[in-house]
Design goal:
ten-stranded antiparallel β-sheet, alpha/beta, 730 residues, single chain, globular, 22 helices, disordered N terminus, Rossmann fold, binds CIS-heme D hydroxychlorin gamma-spirolactone 17R, 18S, Cytochrome C Oxidase, Chain J
Amino acid sequence: MAKKTSEKSKAPAQQENDKTNQLESFVADSSGQFMTTNHGLKINDDQNSLKAGDRGATLLEDFILREKITHFDHERIPERIVHARGSAAHGTFKVYEDMSEWTKAAFLCDPGAETPVFVRFSTVAGSRGSSDLARDVRGFAVKFYTQEGNFDLVGNNMPVFFIQDAIKFPDLIHAVKPEPDNEMPQAASAHDTFWDFISQMPESSHMVMWAMSDRALPRSYRMMEGFGVHTFRFVNTEGVASFVKFHWKPLLGVHSVAWDEAQNISGKDPDFHRRDLWDAIEAGAFPEWELGVQIVPEADEFKFEFDLLDPTKLIPEELVPVQRIGKMTLNRNPENFFSETEQVAFHVGHIVPGIDFTNDPLLQGRLFSYTDTQLIRLGGPNFHEIPINRPVVPVANNQRDGYMRQTINRGKTSYGPNAIANNDPQQAKAAEGGFVSYNERIDAKKIRARSRSFFDHFSQARLFFNSQSDPEKNHITDALSFELGKVKSVAIRERMLAVLAQIDKGLAGEVAYALGLHIPKIALEDLNNSIPADGDRAEYASTNPKGSLATSDALSMAHTVKDTIKTRKIAILAADGVNEKSLSSVKDALIAEGAVVHIIAPKLGEIISEENKKISVDESLLTAASVLYDAVYVPAGGNSVATLEAEADAIHFLNEAFKHCKAIAADEGALQVLESTYFFKKLPADYEEETVLREGIIVGDHASSLTKTFIKMIGMHRFWERENPRKIPA
Ligand code: HDE
């Protein structure tokens, strides 16, 4: 089991105070126990309430009924105002090499130390029960339980953000959430209020490009990058600071699904990402990410054509490479969703010595919000005592009391200085690990304004767009056409077209075409002027310089890892009369490479092979859908092939897999099944072995190279290039 593996690998000293063991002391297991009330009274009858006679009225005296119903009535807490829908897992982090040249953070200086982590992934806009596959930003929040206290890296799967100043956050969220009069649409940005806001916030242009790209539709949480977004600071023991951007790089590569596929998955399995994470960990296929850092010496603060404090900008990896400094492995699922995933409270302000903030105005605002929100969500100031939130190091201070206090503080003093208790708890000197804020010099006027260095709102949006492969560009065009197509107001659509024209005229033109509109001739100056503001608009005007970098490879998923099929889900379509060898040889080879293989047949139960062997069926064509798989294989066998050929659901399965650009393989004995699809006649006339890897379709002999090529194809994830030239109805 996953749990055992992770525990076994730990040194005994580590086991004593790590998070798993700390949590273990709170775990309640009722196996073999009598049922009791919350006060320990054994319950004799949990089936009937106390009544006046067996048909009589229920008595108010029934304290067992009252306790049960009262608890039930209060079982829900407010969902998070953003990031309500999430899934989490436990794991560990280890740094590769001592980073003390840059930071004194102990967990980054000791390659021998294994730091427990708890990671929660989320969507932003949807409610707790919404689909995992919404087009949305994904939260990527990591709590490191370090020996110097908790460090929370509360990031997203996109490296920039919509706004530059925290004061706009409530507006952004009000705009994207369901509209207030009718609470529609759920978990979607494709509506008037969102685009009304965005079209008047040119600073969101860069983030909008990310959100309209396939990054907003991850194939799996395990296949997403993570970013700290803001520029933070590293500080070493000499007090020397440098700027740092944090990255998470998934070892499985960065992969996404298609928008049409995402919409289907939302119906077929709205828990798709949650299930994927859970299943992978249960199967021992532990998800892994490398922690990356981009370090900028303080002296280079003004070396860039953007401001390091501006959260709508990234540092292109061409300018500052990402150093991979450690690895995180998620190896244990939570025991209880509510107690861990729901009650975990992240806070961007939880830092450790060696890590510090910058004056990024978005980060500064977040520093207030994260504690404040827990007061209402978790019901008071003692949420740090909830097991999942407790640090693994002792907590000692003069804070006391409050709702649901659990610590029994001994002694008379809850103030300092005190003589009665020898001034305990004591303050720690910096040399003793006491946190000292970075001594940044600030000499400024108090002013409500934005730095001019934040005004280039378009060049990195363009850099992102220009760095995409052609299929990725098409997806962005389609996403914008879809989203703005759902907007009712023509004025909003047109204003957005004017914004897009600042990023890329070709893109704006294609979206305009899809919307049946023309790009309005709005100059940048007028665009700025159309934005409501106080009298000082001149102080807040977008600029649109060209930008010195034309493209950046790191921004396109086309360059990601494409050499593994580990944990990929493969469907094998079969029916009675399947050729056992044709099925098993491919199945076994896929499993040997770490893939998950399901046999899908017209009905559940078993199928009987040509050789009269029983083969158990994992899903039926009714319970399964191609959108839940990465690839599909059709084995040979006369009767099986004849059944599938005549089975509309099987043909639809294949057509849909083709539409979503997945790898498709068939034994040559099953060619007939492929011939019944829409896509088969769309394949190029010169289609043969060499074109296989371009098209992602292979028909061959299961005993020869078919399996090897199929494995290679699945590793390539998707064949986006075939999408547009070979559109099919499915
Ligand atoms: Fe958050 N954000 N945020 N955010 N955020 C919350 O905290 C907020 C921002 C992020 O899995 C809330 O406990 C403000 C950027 C994640 O539990 C709340 C601003 C980034 C999560 C809050 C931002 C994030 C949250 C809601 C602008 C990426 C989920 C519940 C100033 C770097 C954490 C909660 C989890 C959650 C406020 C902007 C990431 C209300 C005011 C930028 C991953 O406190």
